[in-house]
Amino acid sequence: MTERVLTQRELNRAMLARQLLLERSRLSIPRALERIGGIQNQYAPNAYIRLWLCLDGFDRDALDRALERRSVVQATLMRGTIHVVSARDFWPFAVGIRRARRQWWLRVRRPHSERVDLAAANAALRDLASGTTRSRDEIVQCLHTFDPPGAPAGIAWQGVDVELVRVPPSGTWAKRRAHTFALAEDWLGPAAVAEDDALEHLARRYLAAFGPATRNDLADWAGVPVTFFKPVLERMTLRRFRAENGSELLDVPRAPLPDPETRAPVRFLPTWDATLLVHARRTGVLPEPYRPRIFHTKAPQSFGTFLVDGAVAGTWRFEGGRIRTEPFERLSREVRAELREEAERLAAFHA
Asked: Using CA atoms, how far apart are residues 348 and 70, in angstroms rounded to an integer?
């Protein structure tokens, strides 16, 4: 059979639906995080803003409670960046990326990485953090002794395999510096998933949250070489489509594919939102002419953005008790009114 070709607009609406950006949901916080593949959270308020976008009636205390109850955790995961994920997703994500992360460290940090006694560094960190919480400074001091002479500071920490989670209230809206850590096995219990199953879990989560997508898109999102996923994808039951450029698109069964003419309301995205990154380029959420305006070296923290008809149309910031917007192009009167109403709701959420 000839595979169905999906237009960019169809891919756009599919991802917006899966990312809960077409309408707010009544899902629980852990389930919403699973639905959207977690939230990249380099800046602590991002997770709160993103969940406010996704969930009907969300308030900031709800995420604080979920972190305290350990149904949700914050840790360094995909692509070496901080993510907020459900407790159920943490170990499959951590185990699935572990070997790729180690290989990257050995390759990129060579020759210094070859002189780090990782076994000893892992044991020291485990002894330091076991049964308690530790500050970033304490961990840095512990692992600095394993940095070889002449190596960049912190190279041993980059290479250790001991999984840590950030302990609330650090890394929250009220206390934004993520500086207190615990062993993941103490916080959540030990890992109980093999790498092969963890890779399949990663693939399912990505395709359900961002698909239909290419194999390379999956690899870019996870920060894992595409070859790691090859046997996993071969055994999975998947739908197959084609993009307009002819590339193969994979998808999990029964995931939503809305009508391309489905209305996409105005939405405000936090900085570094996953829908804007290169793994989601095929969807056109961030039009390519605007990409250099959002991600460039002179603005390492990037910008909050707002969507009009499913695509970035400008930036926003919270300043002086209100949301200030900077459109890239002239907006219609109707869009300006919708933008103003949503901005007032977001300002009230900040207050």
From this structure: 28
Q: How far apart are CA 288 and CA 75, in angstroms?
A: 30
DSSP for 185-246, please give it.
HHHH------HHHHHHHHHHHHHHHH-SB-HHHHHHHHTS-HHHHHHHHHHS--EEEEETTS
pLDDT the model gives residue 1: 54
Closest by CA position to 329, among listed 303, 311, 302: 311
What is the pLDDT averaged over residues 6-12?
A: 98
The partner residues of 241 in beta bridges, in order of sequence, read 249
Q: Phi and psi of 156, rounded to 5°?
A: -65, -40
Alpha-carbon distance values, 187 to 65, 69, 141, 285 (Å)? 15, 10, 22, 36
Cα 334 to Cα 61: distance, rounded to the nearest angstrom: 33
Q: Is the dihedral of CA 291, 297, 298, 304 positive or negative?
A: positive
Rounded to whole angstroms, the Cα distance separating 280 from 249 reads: 12
CA 213 to chain centre: 16
| 160-202 pLDDT, tens digit each | 999 999 999 999 999 998 789 999 999 999 999 999 999 999 9
Residue pair 25/56 in contact (Cβ under 8 Å)? The answer is yes
pLDDT in tens, 296-348: 988 888 999 999 999 999 999 999 999 999 999 999 999 999 999 999 999 99
Partners of 250 in beta bridges: 213, 240
Cα–Cα distance, 82 to 153 (Å, whole number): 20
* 8-to-245, 265, 283, 284 alpha-carbon distances in Å: 10, 18, 6, 7
Give the contacts of 195 (CB within 8 A, at least 6 positions apart).
95, 96, 98, 99
Q: What is the mean pLDDT of residues 36-54?
A: 96
What pLDDT does residue 300 have? 87
Indicate the Cα dihedral angle 64, 66, 69, 73, nearest 10°. Answer: -90
pTM above 0.90, yes or no: yes
Q: Is the pLDDT at 227 greater than 60, yes or no?
A: yes
Q: In this structure, are residues 298 and 63 in contact, taking their beta carbons and an 8 Å threshold?
A: no
